[in-house]
Amino acid sequence: MDALALAALADLYEYWTERMPADFDGQKFTPLARLVSYDSKGNSLKLCQTNTAGLVNAFYCSLDDSIAWDRGVLLPELSKQFGKMSIVTVLAHETGHAVQFKLGGRSGITQATKTIVKEQQADCYAGAFFRWIADGKSKRFQISTGEGLNKVLATMFFIRDPAGTDANKQGAHGLAWDRVFGFQVGFSDGPKRCARMDQEEIDKRISEQKFAEDDTGRGNLPLNAENLRKLKVSLDEAFKQSGVTPPQLKDNGSRCPNGKATEPAAFCPEDNSVVLDLKKLAEIAKPPKRDQEPGEDGVGIGDFAAFAEVASRYTMAVQKSVGLSLDDEKAGLRTACLTGAWARVAEKPGTQENPLRISPGDLDEAVAEMLMGKSLIAADINGNPVKAGFARVEAFRIGHTNAKECTARFS
């Protein structure tokens, strides 16, 4: 674990020695003053005014310009569950905090800056570093933009805040949706964009917020006929300007008249319908328990994942109405994008006519579904998903940000 951690930090030193002066007016990157490995199950150390006994963590400490990591529990668990690059991910994030400290005013970070801003920037800096690896510039690591980045995003999903956390709370790191956003921005746009992240920007887009007082289900609804009716109203409203003839929703075991099917929902172009297997959708809609990771064998994801799978098949009717292909990877990307566009509409406060709205944590459920091998949210009409989870989430986010980009970007 220590050899892997030091290899990651050696790469990070090379990256920031190159990028910091290039992106921040010649400022040089100075190595950290101290690197500390400890075992949270072993003898206790005093680091950053904290006792390490039982401290399953990795962290940057500005008091002595140090990075510390738990080699006994945290790193082995991450490596076992998500692969070795998960350790590189964690150390890239912590080095991102060191970069903030070293940049000082150039990063926009002060004593008064809220934790969520610092964490979003650190996730962004980690993404920028992984782009450098993906571009083949690392001497020590390689990563594919398919399965490799999928596992990196899964790592960030694992270390998200629980749904219902207030983003303004001290120590808030962000939901998976927020953390993946930071990483993807850094991967796409580089460190200078990361340093521009500030409270105003984050307040406009952050999904992390407290549950409403009247949300007795803590963000989850049962998947039943009444809530499917509300979903249909929501989808009709979201795409009413597209000129599409709204498809009907049918519970028939997810099978089209021509015999073709994708589970647990399918679009049937021959009669403009979306056919459903309610039993399987209901399994997906069940929220996981605290000790379960969504999407594992036999474990549900949550209501929004199930609703979004239905929405993805609805968007096939939208694409068909304007003569777009339905059976290739572009169709899968457009599907994710248009599903994201519907999600943005569903964020608005519900009305009597259109009462369905998404709640805190719902977008994390979409991320969880899109990181699964058989994601329907980002699949073509035959259920073939876009290969890279990174691309699936990015397409969904593009639609969530600007629906007009869906056909322009993925034509």
Automatic annotation (TrEMBL):
Molecular function GO terms recorded: metallopeptidase activity
Record's keyword terms, sorted: Hydrolase, Metalloprotease, Protease
Region entry Disordered, spans: 243-264
Stored Pfam families: Zn_peptidase
Cited InterPro entries: Uncharacterised_pept_Zn_put
Highest taxon of the lineage: Bacteria
Protein name: Metalloprotease
Species the sequence originates in: Kibdelosporangium banguiense
